[in-house]
Amino acid sequence: MDLPTTRLGSSGIDITRVGFGTWAAGGGGWRFGWGGQDDADSIRAIHRAVSAGVNWIDTAPIYGRGRAEAVLGRALAQLPSADRPRVFTKCGLTWRDDDPDPAPRNEMAAASVRHELDASLRRLGVDSIDLYLVHWPPLDGTPLEAYWSTMLELREEGRVGAVGLSNHDLAAVRAAEAIGHVDALQPPLSLIARAAAADLVPWCADHGTGVVVYSPMQSGLLTGALTVEMVNALPDDDWRSTSPDFSGEGLRRNLALAAALEPVAQRHGVAVPAVAVAWTLAWPGVSGAIVGAREPREVDGWLPAADLVLDSDDLDRIAAAVEATGAGCGPVRPGAS
């Protein structure tokens, strides 16, 4: 199946508007886990996305402390070489297997980054990474100038095809660009978490930096499927059980916004997740959105976002719903001045 593609900034990489995210494939047992997850379900979901035309998968070594990358590696090995998607992964969050503390360490010293890359390549079973990102700004004292230079060296060596930053603010992205081109940025963006649309996305559009946003469904809140009862039943090893977005007034506002997307979804003959994802793709400068799935049927809910175009009336209706519910913060409408 062919899906529309777009260029990832000036990187030369063409990607489908949606990519498969493997955060949930890491399962539980670590600080930001999603609770129990069956590896076979994860592999089937990945294969469903790829068979539908999705041409890139996003992962990270910290997801399940190596588990998500290993699961993706198994999924890739089961595909013919010609059908394998591009692989995006990250560095900068590390752990020790003999340390029971589930909290990751933020470190970007050059030796650590190179060690991480070697380990990711082994788990994934690939020779190079298509897009390699700094997961979070480090806390080990490594200055941006040093760790971004390391990333540029890896690109120059051909061990990675493109390099980027995730979860960095505009000042950091500008500083990195002054050293060497930032191929891609990976910020959170959804109808609830809209801050990136105010500054990061426009800057990237003006500087040839591709944007792939994550959590466009705000970790399930914008699927239209979650209820208060389901949220209250989340297991303790699901990070969402302690998030303010999933409790109290924040939860009420967020679920009300998800419900308000239903008329737009019905108008287009799609499910609510497709509308939530398509809204992020409507922002000029956004190349793609990372969308996760625990099992194949969840892929079918958001896949139509790959070619769904929300018109002006849709965007007006959604903006009105955001304002009426008071959910989240940030700009409410793509294309608004």
Characterise the protein shown here.
There is one protein chain. The chain is of the alpha/beta class and 337 residues long. The chain has one domain: TIM Barrel, CATH 3.20.20. The chain has 12 helices and 12 strands. It has helices at 39-51, 67-77, 110-124, 144-157, 170-179, 200-207, 228-232, 248-260, 262-268, 272-281, 296-302, 312-325, and strands at residues 5-7, 14-16, 18-21, 56-58, 86-91, 93-94, 105-106, 129-134, 160-166, 184-186, 210-213, 286-292. The protein has an 8-stranded parallel barrel, surrounded by 6 helices. Helix 1 packs across helix 2 (67-77), helix 1 runs parallel beside helix 11 (296-302) and helix 4 crosses helix 5 (170-179). 50% of the residues are buried.
List the helices and strands and how they pair.
Layout: E1 5-7, E2 14-16, E3 18-21, H1 39-51, E4 56-58, H2 67-77, E5 86-91, E6 93-94, E7 105-106, H3 110-124, E8 129-134, H4 144-157, E9 160-166, H5 170-179, E10 184-186, H6 200-207, E11 210-213, H7 228-232, H8 248-260, H9 262-268, H10 272-281, E12 286-292, H11 296-302, H12 312-325
Helix pairs in contact: 1-2, 1-11, 4-5, 8-12
